[in-house]
Write a structure and sequence with these properties.
heterodimer, A: 152 residues, alpha+beta, Alpha-D-Glucose-1,6-Bisphosphate, Chain A, domain 4, seven-stranded antiparallel beta sheet, 30% helix, B: 117 residues, mainly alpha, three-stranded antiparallel beta sheet, 5 helices, 3 strands, START-like_dom_sf (chain A), ASHA1/2-like_C (chain A), SRPBCC domain-containing protein (chain A)
């Protein structure tokens, strides 16, 4: 088993409080990632996210690790449904926010075993539209996008 | 924690080429193949195919065995799994998600209404 990490940092022209809501609440999560999300954005909350619709959908466990508004939000996902999330059976995603000018620097990190990542890759490839397809997401983002000065 | 960067870059460039991805697809679909058999199915010369196979072989995405006067190639499933998981799915998927987070947060900040709530 090989341990791996992905790290990204992006600037967002919005206050940390706003960004924190977008990365942490299930309502917003379902707008940028899965089709549905069910959990409480508080530490220890165990819930699930789903990809795809109805019977064909996949249900993926989701456990909130830390939530300190508007500074940090982290969760574990993809652990077996009948097991609590641990560092060896799940992927850990951490969002760290810090103010920068009028906006926010959002640091993203996902750590976990690559073999776990492959299982996820297989799952997500079944729903490739959800992962890479702007065609899928644009309709649901339209209420947002239409009001933006869109810069691709 | 992570693999050496050089290895990641080589894997990325190996699988980032559309012709090589098509070759991997054909090798997976056919259970293997030679430079000649791939050349017949691709709009590139046999020499180009051989060169691409060399790149794939060097990063461990294919394994060669002798087959008469040619070498027969098969996809290394384990290495392909590592490559796809590491390079295709995970990184680009999160890049797309982060861009969506940015757009949503900025839309809210700039006074628009979240119509889905």
């Amino acid at each position: 088993m090989e341990y791996g990490t992905i790290e990204r940092e992006i600037y967002i022209d919005a206050a940390p409080e706003v960004v924190f809501d977008v990365v942490s609440t299930p309502e917003h999560l379902a707008q940028w990632w899965p089709d549905t999300a069910r959990y409480e954005p508080v530490p220890g909350s165990v819930g699930e996210i789903t990809f795809g619709d109805g019977d064909a959908g996949k249900v993926v466990p989701f456990t909130v690790v830390d939530a300190v508004p508007p500074r940090t939000f982290s969760f574990r996902w993809a652990h077996p449904a009948d097991q609590p999330a641990t560092d060896s059976n799940s992927l850990l995603v951490t969002f760290d926010l810090r103010p920068s000018g009028a906006g926010t620097l959002l640091a993203f990190r996902e750590t976990g075993f690559r073999e776990q990542g492959w299982e996820i890759a297989v799952l997500e490839q079944q729903y490739r539209d959800h992962v890479t397809g702007w065609d899928h997401f644009l309709p649901r983002l339209a209420p947002y996008v239409a009001t933006l000065q869109v810069r691709p | 924690m992570t693999s050496p960067v050089a290895v990641d870059d080589e894997l990325w460039s190996a699988i980032g080429d559309p012709t090589r991805r098509r070759m991997l697809d054909l090798l997976l679909a056919d259970g293997g193949g030679t430079a000649s058999s791939l050349g017949r199915q691709l709009p590139v010369t046999r020499q180009a195919v051989a060169k691409h196979l060399g790149v794939l072989d060097r990063v461990g995405l294919v394994r060669a065995t002798a087959a008469g006067r040619e070498r027969r190639y098969r996809v290394d499933d384990a290495q392909l799994a590592v490559a796809v998981a590491q390079l295709t799915s995970v990184g680009t998927a999160w890049d797309a998600r982060l861009q969506r987070i940015k757009r949503i947060a900025e839309a809210i900040q700039h006074g628009t209404t979240n119509t889905e709530e």
